[in-house]
Amino acid sequence: MVSTSPLPATEVTYPDRRGRYGAFGGQFVPETLMPALEELEIALENAVKDPQFEQELKALLKEYVGRPTPLYFARRMTNELGGAKIYLKREDLAHTGAHKINNTMGQILLAVRMGKKRIIAETGAGQHGVATATAAALFGLDCCIYMGEEDTERQKLNVFRMKLLGARVVPVSSGSQTLKDAMNEALRDWVTNVRTTHYVIGSVAGPHPYPKLVRNFQAIIGEETKQQFIEKENKLPDYLIACVGGGSNAMGLFYPFYHEHDVKFIGVEAAGKGINTKQHAATLCAGEIGVLHGSMTYLLQNDDGQIALAHSVSAGLDYPGVGPEHCFYKDSKRAEYVSITDEEALDAFTNLARWEGIIPALESAHAIAYTIKLAPTLDRDTTIVVNLSGRGDKDVESASRYLKGLMG
Amino acid sequence: MSDSTTSISRGVAAITEVFRSRRQNNQHVFIPYIMAGDPDLGTTEKIVRSLSGIGVDLIELGMPFSDPLADGPVIQRAGERALRQGLSMKKLLRSIETMRLSIDTPIIIMTYYNLFYHFGLKEFAREAARVGVDGVIVPDLPPEEADEFRDALDEYNLALVYLIAPTSSEERIRKIGHVARGFVYYVSRTGVTGEQKDLSADLAENLKKIRSIISLPVVVGFGVSNPEQAKMIAQYADGVVIGSAIVRLIEETDQLPERMVAIFLRPFVDGLHDNEHVN
Known about the structure:
The complex is a heterodimer of chains A (408) and B (279). Chain A is α/β, with parallel strands linked by helices and 408 residues long. Chain A has 16 helices and 14 strands.
């Protein structure tokens, strides 16, 4: 039985006091929000020091979320690829079907401690919206979820789930009607209702202290992985692979291994229709430094500095920014970032279903796809852990449109 | 830096002079905001001349950004229209250069930090000074993040105007007072830009607090929509900003926008420049 603290054991030195990870991060927000960010930072500091907070969170994660999630040896996948030994960290088995719940549980406890009665969140594919609505229902708080109008069409099932959980879902019709616009609208709500409302950001993005806060709540993924891997293999893994949109599941897996220099980190971005087209979401691989949603990060933008539209078959990776700590990992070469096209991700989606009887989220299928490329080039003693960040039930309808051959 | 264009006082000096002279005459400063490039840059130039003609004190020109998280629906829509016209910072600066041939009213560019950062902070300051911009307002740049841009702007004596919010603590107000140039901009309520019927109840009290801490002039914006509100606010502040009500008028009118804006704003100008009125 693995028993890990829900908070990371060692605090590394990033971010600095200004919320910077090297050049990245910071607090680029309207003055109205600055006091709320200070309040949140203090609440986080106090919570970390309070054993009761840790106990409460630990109990919730165990009894309600179903942690620890298994670290599963993917035997058939490993044999098919004939190279490195592949393990899957099964975040898809967490309550609500993805890693997002780790963060919303932590943030909802903070919101309660700050006396906030109302919860808001942005969502793209709807997974973070569902996880937030779930946490709000559990604690009896008002919940309002902002979602791009186009995404509400693409992800009708998740809209229904959120409503079923008692949340109000507000379709956002401004801008590109996707995740970034939902985040704009959530920030506008927060600026207006900041005194009563906590904004649950769903990724390691946004202004400080959010990237740190979300990382710390997601670090349970890596903490568990470390212990589970040592129990099975009596060593540390050689590679950690995870998909990166905003980057919370990847950071959650990587962060507890930060000081383990022999463990290689690979973040997999969405190349959409190809990184050389304009239709991709590979921010770290092909973006430029700028400021969006409160943070200095790599961004997809045009020649004038206007934010460009991201594209991916996976709505959860469809974001033109990325968490500042990933930018720092990229520039300091602690992690390597690669990209996978829509087509490769869809192939991996099908392959994992056939090999292991596991239908991955399209987001996670990007990490699987890169593993399919990498594993055969490595020898059999090499080990890989892939973060299977979510399950694919939500994606079967949209995937069926692409995988027409299967439908006949 | 010291070429012939700097012979006319611009930047912080020009802004400071506007506030000084209004204050001396027991008047208040009136600042209209319009979105540049809405409906097109040619119309913006006409509106700016018209604003200058009716005697406004400063002009705020919004530069549209794809992700305007501090703006309400009216200004968001104006920004989308302007972006569809292909407006860029370069084009805006070129247009201001043209405006400067006919008007002298100080001009402040208001937009989000990414556009300045992308342009290059030093390059922006140099170009802005060259074409006759006097300052900038950057709603997503709190003092904690502003050092680099402020240094760049200081080199050309351009103003970096900070916002103060109803949620700002005394400590933060003091911090902002130390770094602000020209004037500070008090956001009358928590929220995004837009008109509102009633002003917040704590407005007067907050303004008194701010003015007891900060010696720079204080203007009030966000939510001001009629001359009565403007006059009421002026009792507690050095000036008033009005934005969304003008932008909405430009959106809705089927007449010449430059004429409609002048008709709409004349009562604001008259009210705020009326020195009969006693504080």
